[in-house]
Amino acid sequence: MHAPKPLKDRLISTLLPAFASMAVFLCGCIGPLQKAAREGNTSEVLRLVSQEGDINVCGDCNYFTDSQWRIGSPLSCASFEGRIDTVKALLDKGADVNKDCHEGNQPVGRGSPLIYASSANQLDVAKILLAHGADVNIKAGYYGQGTPGSVCKGLKEPTALVIAAVSGYTDMVRLLLAHGADPNAYYISTSCGGSGSLEEISTQRGHPEIAQLIQEAKSRQHGAPTSVASKPVLPAASEPAEAPTSQAEVNSHSDVDKPSYSRPENADNFALVIGIDKYANLPEAEYAVHDATAVREHLRALGYPSRNIVYLEGPKATRTGIQSYLEEWLPRNVKPQSTVFLYYSGHGAPDPKTGDAYLVPWDADVKFLKTTAYPVKQLYASLNALNAKQVIVALDACFSGAGGRSVLAKGTRPLVTKVDAGFAPQGGMILFAAASGDEVTSTLDDQGHGMFTYFLLKGLNGEAKDASGQVSVKSLYDYLLPKVQDEAHRQNRDQTPQLLPASGAQADLILR
């Protein structure tokens, strides 16, 4: 038997981690575990856990300038950022799925990991936490806060449902209600003023579909049907109100969402994934966010580290956000040996005068494309300028202005005679495009995906393997081209995916 350690050593090994955690908590500085969890550095998280011992240590997640809203466990930090692999690893190691770092009535911390996931609209993370027994009705300490800018600071003891409802996160509200969230939770703001039921505050904030979901949940509790007369009053609008549940929200699962393969992680690879379905001032691009989330999962399976994947969804995908990551973040991070993957799912638009193609960010105004949208020529120029071994671009958008994932300013007539996408491949750049310049993209309602993205991912899942059992750029394109064409013909339209360059070393590149 080993001799017991001296008392001094035992005290140091017992108290030092506690003092370190307290120091991080008091000084408002980000702790190493929180930093690794926030960045999705799973291997570093596991290493630190094995050394420090306390997997539930409270520390600064470093989200806001006001430190009282930053304290959380490593699981909370990872949940807020949507680091799925890290979340799973922490849970597998025994992390407390309901850990809340507040103390008594002190307004520190933002609640449990589920509260963090809800406030950042991390739907996939919320599903994982709920599957591991997260308390759907747990409250966020004494005070709580939603995502910056969307919810007033000083919500009194909000649940995840309150935060999601006030923030306008329809899918999150639906998920939480399906797992037993209490629709009778009350909204109370101590800094913005006011209180009320979730139906009232959702309607006031312009989220009538959420108000309807809350009311229907209350009706089910009491065993009463929801009457049309009792529906919340919708705000006046010049156009027809959107249905409470869109096709994009109903079809949220597909046979390509989860990769059937896994490649070793390559720390040199980077990706930018953009998905925009519900725009600030434009028609919906159906299933675009579902496309983007599935592509992100496949990139992880292809060996792109989670920490190297930037994911911009909805309001995060502004012109400034897209430009910043394309023109500053990627050049700063990529290496000569890097492969870079750029995926975009959302609207495209043509300039009616010049034919120049534009990506349409969440906040774009199609009447002012030059100042509010992002030129596709500039996209290619920025990617061509990267000091990277390989750049792969996949665009599930169209630029004809004739519908689908393409928009024009009101009163402008399609079709633009010739769209200039400005693609001039250099070095190791490859482009997958959903359609030719004069075509409209299509969707598959039964799968909840854009047609191009669905077959792209189905090919990666193994349908596009060549004779050697591998999936190359060319074998993937050879698979998806006829599949997309055939499905489009069934919908009485043409859609012809493009691959540029279609031959040569780039086309022979092995993807998996």
Q: Gyration radius, to the nearest Å?
A: 24 Å
CATH class of the largest domain: Alpha Beta
Helix content, binned percent: 25-40%
β-strand number: 17
Q: Any idea what the shape is? A: globular
Q: Which spans of ≥5 residues are poorly predicted at pLDDT below 50?
A: 10-28, 64-69, 104-109, 142-153, 224-251, 401-420
Annotation field: number of helices: 18
Main-sheet strand order equals: 8-7-9-13-14-17
SSE topology:
Elements: H1 7-27, H2 32-39, H3 42-52, E1 59-60, E2 71-72, H4 74-81, H5 84-92, H6 113-119, H7 123-131, E3 143-144, E4 155-156, H8 160-167, H9 170-178, E5 186-188, E6 195-197, H10 198-204, H11 208-221, H12 247-250, E7 270-275, H13 288-301, E8 309-313, H14 319-333, E9 339-345, E10 348-350, E11 357-359, H15 369-372, E12 374-375, H16 376-384, E13 390-396, E14 429-433, E15 443-444, E16 449-450, H17 451-463, H18 473-490, E17 498-500
Parallel strand pairs: 7-8, 7-9, 9-13, 13-14
Antiparallel strand pairs: 1-2, 3-4, 5-6, 10-11, 11-12, 14-17, 15-16
Helix pairs in contact: 2-3, 2-4, 4-5, 4-6, 6-7, 6-8, 8-9, 9-11, 10-11, 13-17, 17-18
Question: Could you explain how this protein is built, in words?
Answer:
This protein has a six-stranded mixed beta sheet with strand order 8-7-9-13-14-17, with helices on both faces. By secondary structure, the protein is α/β, with parallel strands linked by helices. A hairpin with a 4-residue loop joins strand 15 and strand 16. It contains 18 helices and 17 strands. It has two domains: 210 residues, Alpha Horseshoe (Serine Threonine Protein Phosphatase 5, Tetratricopeptide repeat), CATH 1.25.40.20; 243 residues, 3-Layer(aba) Sandwich (Rossmann fold).
